[in-house]
Amino acid sequence: MKNWLPVWLRSNTQNKKVPVAQTSKTDSFLLIEGAFTPLQAADILLSLINDKIKFHTVQLLNLKDINQIDFLNSEHRIRELRETKNQITKIILDARTQDKHLTIHSNIEVSTTDKLS
Length: 117
What we know:
Layout: E1 23-36, H1 38-63, H2 68-97, E2 102-113
Antiparallel strand pairs: 1-2
């Protein structure tokens, strides 16, 4: 296959086959719903993001010498979360400057999958 193709389009002879988990029923839960002051929105959203960053930081400490792929995934996720945190902080500060409220709607989807070997 051509090297210009995205990895997921290339032949499996070039790439290791990755097992695909089978997903069962998905449940959806309303996590956050409503209009909030910038201070309330900051408290809710930044706490959530900070907890996710903390989770991945702990994962990094546990995975550093064990699994390089999971380690790199956690590092990448932390970078993404920090960027998200910066963007949300800007939105919150803009709303505060403009004396506006923020409407937040957030769902969580949970499903079970087959265990990968």
